Amino acid sequence: MSLKNIFLLLGIVLFISIPLFLIPRLIKISQITCKSQFGPCNSVIQKILDDIKTEKLSIVKEEIKSKLSQNVLVREYFIQYKFPNILEINLIEAKPKYAIADKEKNIVLVDARGYVVSSQSSSSLPTLEIDDELGKVGEKVNKNILFAGEIIYDMFSLYGIEYGKITGDRLEMTTEDGIKIIYPLEGDKEILVGSLVAIMSRLKETDEETKIEEEKSVSEIDLRYKNPVLR
User: Fold this and answer.
1) 3-state secondary structure string, 179-225?
2) 3-class secondary structure, 163
3) Domain-embedded: residue 117
4) What would the pLDDT profile of 31-56 be if each residue is shown by its tens digit?
């Protein structure tokens, strides 16, 4: 390649790259919009974006990245510039898995990682009632509540049980048939749930040879022990 062609190529590269370098430092953003998979962004996220001062495009983008990349409510996000002075944020918010309620029926929603992702007045999700204070949005629930919440979710999926309550050192819930189920607040969740599934299956067994004796008298299944107790 001749020297002339080299200079020509360098000139083209500079002609293209200089605007790309300068434009983000010249354009001033005056509006930030935010959408999620649920529609408008969570009010907490929107408040964070509203607090970002109007600045040059490059500065605003860096601040948005800093805020959203550290936010437990945001799983993924994409920033897009809209002419003439708008930044549009499209993001995937953390999806709630179950709800936690206190005695006053205040409700927060919790995701699979155990983080409180929103505060609600009502919920159709499986719900765990606790005696302690509810966590704030962005906070992580303690391990016992997380353990109980995961069990409530499994019980809802398996048996349609929508409600459970932590009482002292145990989790209590009741089936549609009126059988009380008691779980510990720690242990191997898969083994505990598997044990209940096996017991419930035998209770409904129609073969007289494998049917649990006096099944009609079983009103409580306590899974806090190595060998589950039926009462």
Assistant:
1) CEEEEECCCCHHHHHHHHHHHHHHHCCCCCCCCCCCHHHCCEEECCC
2) strand
3) yes
4) 999 999 989 998 889 999 999 887 88
**pLDDT digits over 94-150, tens only?**
999 999 999 888 999 999 999 999 988 899 999 999 998 899 999 999 999 999 999
Q: In this predicted model, what pLDDT tens digit does every residue of 61-74 receive, in sequence order?
A: 999 999 999 899 99
Q: How far is CA 156 from CA 106, 125, 149, in A?
A: 21, 9, 11
- CA 158-185-124 angle, to 5 degrees, is 45
Q: What's at 224, amino acid-wise? A: R
Angle between helices 57-69 and 3-26 (to 10 degrees): 70
| pTM exceeding 0.85 | no
Structure tokens at 35: 């959408």
Q: Give the SS3 label for residue 119.
A: strand
pLDDT of res. 217: 78
Q: Please state the domain count of the chain.
A: 2
Residue 174: strand pairing partners: 180
- As a whole number, mean pLDDT of residues 154-165 equals 96
pLDDT band at residue 22 under the 50/70/90 scheme: very low
Structure tokens at 28: 């001033």
Owning domain of residue 198: 96-230
173 in a domain, yes or no? yes
Q: Please check whether residue 7 lies inside any domain of the structure.
A: no
Angle separating helix axes 189-203 and 143-159, nearest 10 degrees = 30
Q: Per DSSP, which regions of the chain are E strands? A: 31-36, 39-40, 74-82, 86-93, 96-101, 107-111, 116-120, 127-129, 163-167, 170-174, 180-184, 220-222, 229-230
Length of the chain: 231
Give the pair of three-digit tokens for residue 192. 């505990």
